[in-house]
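Entry:
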Amino acid sequence: MIWVVMMKQGLIVTIAERLPELIQLEALIKSEAAINNRMSLQASELVRLPFHDQHLPIYECRLGNPSPGLPCLFLVGGVHGLERIGTQVLLSLLTSLCRRLAWDNNLQRTLETMQIVAIPLLNPVGMALQRRSNARHVDLMRNAPVESQERTAWLVGGHRISPRLPWYRGPAGRPMEAEAQLLVDQVLKQTRQSPFTMALDCHSGFGLRDRIWFPYAKSTRQPVSRLGSLFRVREMFFQAYPHQNYVFEPQTKHYTCHGDLWDFLYDEAEAQGNPLLPLTLEMGSWLWVRKNPLQLWHPLGLFHPMKKHRVQRTLRKHLVLLDFLINATEAYTNWFSHTEDEADWHQAMLLWYSSNRQDNCS
């Protein structure tokens, strides 16, 4: 257990206060460590990042069958330090799965044939400092060596003007930040040993509705090569859960950007011949602000529910999506094909890339 002590305006502040998510994650890891079961939670410390006179770890957690050749659901949270609700959603899921494994025969059978890999807190220093970026003021989601093919929004689309401004990409020609490179390495390592990988990256801070985004973030005109498969995921989800309220769409329906990590990972996996379907959950934080405008005075106010009952509601509502992704990944052979279905591709193009469609259709 980590109890870093630091000074802020003359007050002693512990990591338990700054990073309760890290404390919760370490407590879960410790509680599961004594379970002698190959499918139970296995955690490894990937790296330790300097923070004041201490170091903060990045953990990777694995659930399910560790044998190669099985499908994988890869979960990520805490890429942006201000968006701590994403980490909390994943911690809620991992805790639920660990508790259910003791008695849930269906979950046990599912995890015999797949693996779940999670990095719940990729940017612990940024979260401890209550900033979007990492310790070097770099926005990890603008840090990959990807250039948008089209004009991007000023600043928001990623820039190299100054680390004092948000959405800073980092200096040109430099290697990716340690956190970004770690994510790239771990995802690509997983795709090389899995016949199919689905990914979900949990964020907050945009819009009044919860959105499921997919690449590309670099182009409004060029669709990903597996667009038909992403359309099939959308159709399965909406058919299985017709009363949900997600919008499922390309990220570029709202803005384009440079340096998107999932654009980079998608292209790298495709180049290696390893299918990867990356999704981003963008939780609609503007609704939280509309219901409680006073939270804008808090540094996390634009990115976090703040009120306890809204946090609890958020943790509950996304379990449906996560449960669907687990089952869809485990049963990928029932719906996924390495050769894109022409009908799915055509419908996807009409839905997302036709100039005649309405922008906010779900």
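The longest helix spans residues 84-100.
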